[in-house]
Amino acid sequence: MQNKLTPRFLLIGLVLVWGIWSLWPSIKLQTLSEDEKSALSEQGNLEILESRAIKQGLDLKGGMYIALEVDIPTLIENIAINKDQKLSSIFEDIRKEISASPEADFFDLFSVLIDKKQLKLSRYYYDYGSSTNDITSALKEEAEDAINRVLEILQNRIDQFGVAEPTIQKQGNQRIIVELAGVQNSERARSLLESTALLEFYLVKDVTATNDLMIKIDQILKKDKSVASVAKELKSENKKLDSTSNDQAVSVSELFGAAEPSEEADSAIVDEDIFAERPFSSMLRSLGNSIGVPEKNAYAIKKLIEKPEVQERLASIGANFLFSHKAEEYALTDGSVEKMYALYLLDDQAELTGGVVEEAKANLGPQGTTSAGQPIVNLSMNSDGARKWAIMTGSNIGRQVAIVLDKKVHMAPNIREKISGGGTLIEGFASIDEAKDIAIVLRAGALPAPVDIVEERVIGPSLGADSVKSGTQSILIGLAIVLLFMILYYRTAGTIADFALIWNIVLVLAILASLHATLTLPGIAGLILTVGMSIDANVIIFERIREELDKGKTAKAAIDGGYDRALTTIIDANMTTLIAALVLWQFGTGPIRGFATVLFWGILISMFTAIFVTRTIFNAFVNRKGFSKLSI
Amino acid sequence: MRILKNSNFDFMGKKSFALALSGLIALAGIISLVINGGPKLSIDFKGGTFVAVQYTEDINVEEVRSKMGTINIDGQKFDFSREEVKHFGDKTAVSVRVPHIENSPSNFAQKIAVHLFESFPNKIPANMTEFVLSKGVISPKIGSELSGKAIMAILSALGLILLYISIRFEFKFALGAIAALSHDVLITLGMFSLLSYEVSLPIIAAFLTIVGYSLNDTIVIFDRIRENLKSSRRESYTDIVNQSINKSLSRTIITSLTTFVVVFILWLFGGEVIHNFAFAMIVGVIIGTYSSVYIASTLVIFLHDNAKK
Questions:
Q1: Which of A21, A260, B21, B236 is spaced 20 to 30 A from A476 at the CA atom?
Q2: How much is the ipTM here?
Q3: How far apart are CA B214 and CA B297, in angstroms?
Q4: Pick from A571, A414, A592, A73: nearest CA to B147
Q5: Considering CB atoms only, which of A295, A546, A588 is closest to B75?
Q6: Hey, of A458, A479, A551, A578, which one would you mutate to test binding to chain B, going by the most B CBs within 10 A of its CB?
Q7: B74 and A453 in contact by Cβ < 8 A?
Q8: B23 pLDDT exceeds 50?
Q9: A404: Cβ–Cβ under 8 A, 6 or more apart, which residues?
Q10: What is the pTM of this model?
């Protein structure tokens, strides 16, 4: 008998050694103090240790999860040549369709609409083929390629940003998942990912042109009934209010259905008579070289600019309005301070784009310049860019050039002299960190298409720590009670089962570590279910053994009988759960998958520990010299 | 130590009472589900924005709610005073959930968090990182994908389990098991609806755990029935089922009790994130144990008797 058991013990021993070996890095990592960690990381050994330890999910460790989607309609629209009204109306329809039914496929809609409106695709995409089918499939490839490029660029940005263990992966055809564990400043990481990094240089329209346009827009909007009627309403409202209080402000944003009226002042106070006369310019302030938009009016101004008649007017003079990238405080003539965006009227064609940038570096502005001590980004351009930049600056001395990043104006300095050599700098950053991040995105290059954040989850570090602490604590208490109960109820047999159970947990964790799997809260739930199943298997066996003993069988016969009878029960019960785990793994995303992974391995291991391991130990007990009665 | 020895309860004799009870609870749940237009889905499935923040002192939910009525983002005004605002864990933390809105401003969650930060200057920690416990934005697109996947997963799991049990046992056992599972999930879902708890992604994981647990329980009893059917031919089908339930009773009680203890402690001390998950598990353990006896076995007897006629 002794000989029969030896190979079983050998196998059990080997598995145990493997389990502890796999789990060792995780245990070591948990017990390290901060000092020891930093010492290890200096040697470069911390990363090796971390890569071999169990990864904690974002819900446990804190961090951010972002799912991005490449804006395919914009991408396809951008690469079209000879764009016209017909084509842009198609894209507008597609966007409406997609926002109404998010599952719709862009290319399906595109083909249908192109057919319906009888457009010749070769007119806009002759580089991509001649027949509609050829072009559509070439555009599809272009879209796929764009996603891969976006993936690469984001990878590049994150590498330079410096986060431990970033995960970036493609999911499906157009989604990219980014997971950054333990990121402290989620806002920085977010803007780094979201930024298209489209750098453009535009000439600013001169003051006369700007003033002319403002007058025209006021006239246009005066005719617009929706604006005019609100002005009238405001007038009558204010008359009523005059009797009670003069403090009542007029909310311009009410106009656009943004919200219900409230008692608070929500937009800069506008005299309603002036508003009726000049609906556009009355909401603006003069900032000398540029136009100021009080922060509270920004939404209303944006809405007014978006109106088709205003857009038409802008297109007719080849101009476009862009806002500054952030609101700043300006002192007004009456001594008060107001937060305002600057609004610029620019040419609608860029003089130069970021494609010419060769190197971008964040710095503090050199002494003796206007940007001394301010965070700046130094750019150097390639030879082509440098040549164009020199021509452009040379022929526009005295005019303003706007440096625009992602459709937001960062600065609009006056050109004082011709700049040759292709160097320039961007200022207007809140901090050196922001400048560094912009330098990163400029170096990594612009995304071929804008990206939308479709899902974002940020778990603060303290919440993660709290859930781990209270979660583990309560699981340990629960586990302790169960272990104790098993010993009390089944004596020696219970102790053996407890041993198998602890071992079961160790092995599941060891497998997670060697699979580089991530442990999340649902994963812990899976572990609890596994523990339950493992206990259950032993309970089924023990109850069977007791039944056999009741029938008057010897200890050895009872153990053999009990195990044999329980075996089919346990296998059938576990197989069904295993099926459920496999299906969940197949269909589930993130958290559900974590649950399924733990459950799958947990059940396999619990069958091993509850059937094979405990039986081997039982047999060893029974075979011992001087064994008389089974303690169960 | 032994709790039960040679028990002989007449489980199947009380099946009409049990079925009536089940029907009543299920009906209450269904009515609540119908009235509320389905389960209260979290923004995981519907899309939306959530923010959970940590103040340094106790904070009044109503005050936060009134502040949520006047959010102003770049001149765009929002009134969220009717949306969900509640304490998160203890009384110093608050969570806010806002459904998806068309054309919401960029970085919406952060701007709500900043508003909450600035609204109570006396009760805030030193910086935003300490203040924001958790936040997120989920687009409806992700949500509807997730619902589709969850439904697919549950249906195909049920299908495969049906197949497995039909092969290993008989078709009527498979139907019994599926009926028990559906019963468990329906009742738990109904309980969530009655208590107006939200169904989120972790809750789906809890439902799946319940399904796994209940299935395990059902199979153990079925296995006994299968075994006893082979050995004794003279007794009636109902007697055999009853005997089998009694034979496996002490195992059922011990397993249910130990699992119950674990999830109960998790519910008590597990913390905010896991609280509702543990609640679903508690309901599931109780219902799962009960349904193995009364729903699964009862249906098997019913199908057996009907087949003979």
A1: A21
A2: 0.85
A3: 13
A4: A592
A5: A295
A6: A458
A7: no
A8: yes
A9: A199, A200, A201, A202, A322, A346, A350, A410
A10: 0.77
